[in-house]
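Duplicate of #3305? Posting structure anyway:
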């Protein structure tokens, strides 16, 4: 029996989605992963027992394309040959018009921009539908990507800013974590202690921000006592215009996304 969904690409994004679908109740036999690299394919077989891992796609109505953009055209054209009718693309920078030219006018195409926390089921993805996409196709894409995090809908022109903010955003936060660990060590803590303090501070603060329903500024104000230690530290960040640096970083990443999509 043909699988219900074919996932093109057995890298981090594709595999994370498969794990999310399995955790949500999909049966292993309803999924297939296409991975052209022999070594990666061999590694995926024991990781995904019961899910067929193959070098070429088989007939299926639905597919997810999670390959590198350079391999996107060949992946899409191979899906056309097996009769796919709708596709979600996770390829960064590959616009709907190009996807539709590869897949043909009858295939419903949804473009998605996920970020790397999908690998732990805590990502966020933004989706945008192509010319022949219906409401049910968008709901289908939301259901798939909802197994690995939150999903938003936006028009395609917004996806460059999404890429610059949430697509690249984890790297910004990892950079901050690196800097904080180094700062702790400079203040006299061991690397082990500093790392533990920073990682749990970042994880706990993110959870508090999500679950409390308060704004970032509101939570920051609650921690900042007049004349206290936090105020002293924040004053340094303000003097160095750290907020402005983040604005510039997102703007640069957004522009680069536009360039890659041309």
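Output from current build:
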């Amino acid at each position: 029996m043909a699988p219900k969904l074919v996932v093109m690409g057995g890298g981090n994004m594709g595999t994370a989605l498969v794990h999310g679908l399995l955790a949500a109740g999909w049966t292993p036999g309803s999924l297939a992963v296409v991975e052209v690299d022999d070594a990666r394919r061999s590694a995926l077989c024991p990781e995904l027992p019961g899910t067929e891992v193959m070098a070429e796609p088989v007939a299926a109505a639905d597919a997810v394309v999670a390959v590198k953009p350079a391999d996107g055209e060949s992946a899409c054209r191979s899906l056309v040959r097996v009769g796919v009718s709708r596709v979600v693309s996770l390829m960064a920078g590959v616009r709907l018009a190009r996807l539709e030219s590869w897949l043909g006018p009858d295939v419903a195409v949804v473009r998605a921009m996920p970020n790397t926390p999908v690998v732990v089921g805590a990502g966020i993805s933004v989706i945008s539908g192509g010319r022949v996409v219906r409401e049910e196709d968008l709901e289908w894409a939301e259901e798939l990507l909802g197994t690995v995090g939150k999903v938003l809908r936006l028009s395609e022109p917004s996806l460059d800013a999404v890429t610059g903010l949430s697509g690249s955003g984890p790297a910004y936060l990892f950079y901050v974590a690196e800097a904080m660990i180094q700062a702790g060590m400079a203040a006299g803590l061991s690397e082990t202690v500093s790392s533990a303090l920073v990682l749990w501070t970042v994880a706990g603060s993110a959870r508090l921000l999500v679950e409390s329903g308060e704004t970032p500024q509101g939570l920051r104000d609650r921690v900042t006592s007049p004349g206290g230690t936090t105020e002293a530290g924040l004053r340094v960040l303000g003097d160095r215009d750290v907020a402005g640096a983040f604005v510039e970083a997102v703007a640069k990443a957004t522009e680069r996304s536009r360039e890659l999509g041309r």
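Confirmed duplicate; merging threads. DSSP finds eleven helices and eight strands in the chain. The longest helix spans residues 191-212.
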